[in-house]
Amino acid sequence: AFEQEYDGDRNAEGERHGYGKARLPNGDTYEGEYERGLRSGRGTYRFKSGALYTGNYLQNKKHGKGIFFYPDGSKYSGDWVDDQRQGHGEYTYANGDTYTGEWFNHKRHGQGTYVYKDSGSKYVGRWVNGIQEGPAEIIHLNHRFLGRFFNGKPLGRGKYVFDFGCEQHGEYIQLEQEKGEEEEEEVPLPVEPVEPKWKAIEITKLTPWTPQDEKPPSP
Question: What residues form DSSP beta bridges with 50?
Fold first, then answer.
C-alpha cells in the first residue's frame, strides 16, 4: 500500500530518484528531488503540524540554504547543516522581533544583531549558545550602550553614549536571583530586554572605546 504514496521518477534499481511527490506514513508530504531513495537536492516538505520547509536536502536532512516556517508564525531563512540551523541566517519571531547573524547547532551563536520590534532597539554583539554574551552594543532611539554581556545581561564596565554629545561611564552590578531549570526548546524564544542595576561613575565628552580593552568578568 505504501508504494502508492509515491508518484515520481525512479532509477533502474526501483529507488526514488529524480523528481517526485510523496506522502509519508506520519501524514507529512514531500515534493522535490530524490537521489537513490533519499530526499536530496531541492524540495518542499510540509509537516502535518502546519510547519513547512523549502530548500536544500542532503540524504534526507535539511542541508544548505532553506527557509523554515514554524507553526507559531515565526520563520528562519538561512544556512542548515545536518538538519540544524547552522551558519548564517535570519530568524523572524512571532512577535515581530528579528535576529540576523551566526548560528551553530540550532542556536544563536557568534556575532549577531537582534532587533526588538516594539522599541526599535537593537543588540549588536556576541552570542553564546543562544544567549547574549560578550562585547556588545545596544542601540536605542537617541542613545546607545557599549559594554559586555554575561549570561544574557549586561555586566561590569560600560558606557552610555548620548546623541547630544556626551557619555556616561559606569558599571552594571548583577543582583543574585535563583534561576529555574531551562527546558529544551526547539523554537528559539524571543529575547527579553533586562535591566540589571546600573551604577554611574562619570560623565565625559565622547571617547573611542573598544570592548577588547576590558577584561571579561569572571563568571
Answer: none
